[in-house]
Write a structure and sequence with these properties.
By secondary structure, this protein is mainly β. The protein has strands at residues 3-7, 10-13, 18-25, 31-39, 46-52, 57-59, 67-72, 77-82, 91-99, 104-106, 110-115. Strands 2, 4, 5, 6, 9, 10 and 11 form a seven-stranded mixed beta sheet that branches. The chain is globular and about 45 Å long.
């Protein structure tokens, strides 16, 4: 059974930084892409940033220049470094992975709250 566990969320003041982590455990047949999504209250879940196995990175326009994704294949982990945080970044952040068969897996989410 594949499990994704996120950590690193919390409360931060506007302008601050946070680093989210996501580790994958269990049997997964190769990870083709990693991504971070977020969902604010009353809004749909949206893509924040993704990275494919070939290295292509896609950012939401709202986080370009502020958020960065990185990975550690040896640890089956991915990270989201968030800087210059704004109150509108407040949301539950979810880790997502897709394997080479096209199956996708989600973490349980971690709350990020940015105070003004």
């Amino acid at each position: 059974q594949v499990q994704l566990v996120e950590s690193g969320g919390g409360l931060v003041q506007a302008g601050g930084s946070l680093r989210l982590s996501c580790r994958v455990s269990g049997s997964i047949s190769g990870i083709n892409a990693w991504a971070w999504y977020r969902q604010a209250p009353g809004k749909q879940r949206e893509l924040v940033v993704s990275i494919a196995s070939g290295g292509t990175i896609v950012h939401a326009d709202s986080v370009k220049g502020r958020f960065a994704i990185s990975g550690n294949n040896a640890k089956n982990a991915v990270y989201l470094q968030m800087t210059s945080l704004k109150p509108e970044d407040t949301a539950v952040y979810y880790c997502n992975v897709r394997d080479y068969h096209g199956s996708t897996y989600w973490g349980q989410g971690t709350q990020v709250t940015v105070s003004s």
